[in-house]
């Protein structure tokens, strides 16, 4: 098993000289009997994974037990088998919507794209194209890479191409990789034809976190290097090398870094260091911060949209904490409407049939569940609630006197 693993490393690892050093370390462990106590195949795989990472410092390395993968890898020489396996992969990806977990248009016409991984665009092209069309009319876009563990770099190329002009050569990634003793070099450039309108000139934000990995990191890193995106969140994991799975014997496989990617500006990478954000905030807060930045940038580019940034600012602040007694004081009858306190929340009812939750926005300001064009303010007289004031997005107001 160790001899086979050493052979796979020497044939595929991105750094041939380093592969020899790693191989020597594994063989030394073998000679010392460090693997003799492995109770089963999984225990041996775990020990080898640990020693590979220790000898290389590369978190991409992983040894697994999967006889089916090994058999399928060999069977791919048969075109019919290869096609069947490809269809099986497509069906599995389809269940995950090819990584597109969340698409939304946030307040202020800011698009949000949440991706769990980068699927192969040969399988995911239609879904990716639909996502690109969905966001094409937005004024800014936020790509969420916080929980994205990487995947196929060609998907990153496709999505990133929407952010650049198509009539000008622009490299996105430059890399080489090894494939069974063959060295292959290539660059990935902005695609000249896309299934959606381009977002050139629109503000772009990429959310990052400690679990952003590999291709997700490259998406953020390259866009930042090209001055095309602002990064918000936490430093990423630092896995810059592309990987592939190679069979080892009949039962095992090794996930091995096969190449090295360079950014298109100064030919650097972030291996072992991660990608640092422009705005360092806890990953859980990154979306709110990016949304706020997007609204400010949109308003800067178009002063007529300044009102949008001001209007939505209260909804992007930290959730207001209001004591139950204060909420109860708001409950009551108002002209043509009623507010009830139930389950720790305020419920707004009008025409005796329409009911929505009132959401505290700070002070005496309340938003209305699902409503973006108006909100309410509580008016007080001598310290007591006297009226409910409707604040419309166009600046007009309507007061409803309290009746009880």
Question: What secondary-structure arrangement, pairings included, does this model have?
Answer:
Layout: H1 2-12, H2 16-31, H3 41-56, E1 62-65, H4 67-75, H5 79-95, E2 100-106, E3 110-115, H6 121-135, E4 140-144, H7 153-161, E5 171-179, E6 182-189, E7 204-208, H8 215-225, E8 230-233, E9 243-248, E10 252-257, E11 259-262, E12 279-280, H9 286-301, H10 306-312, H11 324-330, E13 332-334, E14 337-342, E15 345-350, E16 354-362, E17 365-368, E18 374-381, E19 384-392, E20 397-401
Parallel strand pairs: 3-4, 4-7, 7-8, 8-12
Antiparallel strand pairs: 1-10, 2-3, 5-6, 5-11, 9-10, 13-14, 14-15, 15-16, 16-17, 17-18, 18-19, 19-20
Helix pairs in contact: 1-2, 2-3, 6-7, 7-8, 9-10
Key terms for this structure?
single chain, 404 residues, eight-stranded antiparallel sheet, six-stranded mixed sheet, 11 helices, 20 strands, 33% helix
Tell me the overall shape.
elongated
The helix content is 25-40%
Low confidence ranges: none
Characterize the main sheet: 8 strands, antiparallel
Radius of gyration over all CA atoms, rounded: 27 Å
From the N-terminal CA to the C-terminal CA, the straight-line distance is: 82 Å
- Strand arrangement within the widest β-sheet reads 13-14-15-16-17-18-19-20
Please report which band the strand proportion falls in: under 5%, 5-15%, 15-25%, 25-35%, 35-45% or over 45%.
25-35%
> Quick one: how many beta strands?
20
């Amino acid at each position: 098993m160790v001899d086979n693993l050493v052979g796979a490393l020497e044939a595929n690892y991105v750094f041939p000289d380093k592969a020899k050093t790693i191989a020597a370390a594994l063989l030394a462990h073998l000679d010392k009997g460090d693997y003799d106590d492995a109770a089963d195949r999984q225990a041996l795989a775990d020990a080898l994974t640990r020693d590979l990472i220790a000898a290389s410092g590369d978190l991409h390395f992983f040894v697994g037990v999967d006889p089916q993968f090994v058999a399928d890898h060999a069977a791919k020489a048969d075109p019919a088998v290869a096609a069947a396996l490809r269809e099986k992969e497509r069906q599995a990806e389809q269940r995950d919507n090819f990584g597109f977990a969340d698409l939304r248009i946030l307040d202020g016409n800011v698009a949000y794209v949440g991706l769990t991984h980068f699927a192969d665009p040969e399988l995911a092209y239609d879904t990716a194209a639909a996502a690109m069309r969905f966001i094409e009319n937005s004024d800014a876009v936020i790509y969420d890479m916080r929980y994205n563990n990487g995947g196929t770099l060609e998907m990153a190329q496709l999505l990133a191409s929407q952010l650049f002009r198509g009539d000008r050569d622009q490299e996105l990634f430059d890399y080489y990789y090894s494939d069974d003793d063959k060295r292959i070099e290539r660059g990935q450039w902005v695609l000249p034809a896309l299934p959606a309108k381009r977002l050139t000139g629109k503000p772009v934000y990429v959310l990052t976190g400690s679990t952003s990995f590999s291709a997700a990191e490259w998406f953020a890193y390259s866009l930042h290097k090209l001055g095309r995106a602002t990064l918000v969140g936490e430093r990423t994991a630092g896995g810059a090398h592309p990987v592939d799975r190679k069979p080892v014997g009949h039962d095992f496989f090794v996930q091995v870094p096969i190449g090295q990617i360079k950014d298109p500006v100064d030919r650097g990478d972030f291996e072992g260091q991660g990608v640092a954000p422009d705005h360092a905030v806890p990953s859980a807060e990154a979306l709110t911060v990016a949304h706020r930045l997007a609204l400010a940038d949109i308003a800067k580019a178009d002063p007529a949209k300044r009102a949008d940034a001001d209007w939505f600012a209260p909804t992007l602040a930290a959730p207001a904490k209001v004591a139950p007694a204060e909420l109860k004081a708001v409950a009551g009858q108002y002209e043509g409407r009623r507010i009830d306190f139930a389950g720790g929340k305020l419920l707004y009812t009008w025409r005796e049939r329409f009911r929505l939750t009132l959401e505290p926005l700070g002070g005496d300001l309340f938003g209305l569940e699902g409503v973006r064009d108006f909100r309410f303010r509580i008016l007080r007289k001598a310290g007591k609630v006297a009226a409910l004031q409707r604040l419309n997005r166009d600046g007009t107001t309507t007061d409803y006197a309290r009746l009880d």
